[in-house]
Amino acid sequence: MNRRTFIAGAAAAALAQHAAGARAARRPRFAAIAFDAFPILDPRPVFALAETLFPGKGTELSALWRTRQFEYQWLRALSRRYADFLATTEDALVFAARQLQLALTSEKRERLVHAYLELQAWPDVVPALQALKADGVRLAFLSNMTRPMLDGAIVRSGLDGTFEHVLSTDAIRTYKPDPLAYQMALDAFGLGREAILFAAFAGWDAAGAKSFGFTTYWVNRSNAIAEELGNAADAQAHVLSELRNFVTPG
Asked: From the centroid of its chain, how far is CA 209?
């Protein structure tokens, strides 16, 4: 072996060792991540449409609508009078418009509710999820949205094949933060709580998942303040790209 060949071989070995070390350094802390829908899907077009249909009142309508949307889901789960995500969303919209004395025609109501059927991913989602999958992390949706809503959004967002499981609480006729909802991730992945990270969009969902026993990451895209529920998220950021640094530090 001449000197040039020896140096080239040594360099190649060093690069291989460095690459192996880098892979080891980025070994994921969790085997799987269960995502709420909205760290992945961007709801802003719904609220922009509300402002278009009700100029100067859209922001107020959206805030009240969203609050009632979740409250109706929780109340229906507690009272065992289940109705799915779209039905509760429409009921909440009707209430919010009446509360604000807005003329919600059947056409406007249909357009606003239908906007939830046209959601697509936030701009940072595809590269973030690709990086996590490259690290060997298993991914799932765990959402209160119905399965057809989630499946449609996956196709529109170019995320086919990204999620190992698409879990809708509609399948068990309840809503997060019911512990039965979070249990779906354990059953689907066949893993213990310690192996699964839950990625939440809302503070209440982060608290609910934490109470269930998940390590919880709050994708706090709206820069909201934390809920006073006695269970803070383990970490948070405003964008999904930061999640990888929490899952695979190094």
From this structure: 12
pLDDT attached to residue 3: 47
Range of the domain at 96: 44-118
Could you report the per-residue pLDDT of 64-94, keeping only the tens digit for each?
999 999 999 999 999 999 999 999 999 999 9
pLDDT digits (tens, 9 = 90+) for 154-180: 999 999 999 999 999 999 999 999 999
Does residue 183 fall inside a structural domain?
yes
| Amino acid at site 48 | A
Whether residues 104 and 135 fall in one domain? no
Positions marked active-site: 36
To the question of pTM greater than 0.70 for the whole model, the response is: yes
Is position 226 within any domain? yes
Predicted confidence (pLDDT) per residue in 209-227, tens digit: 999 999 999 999 999 999 9
Are 55 and 144 members of one domain?
no
Dihedral sign, Cα of residue 201, residue 204, residue 210, residue 212? negative
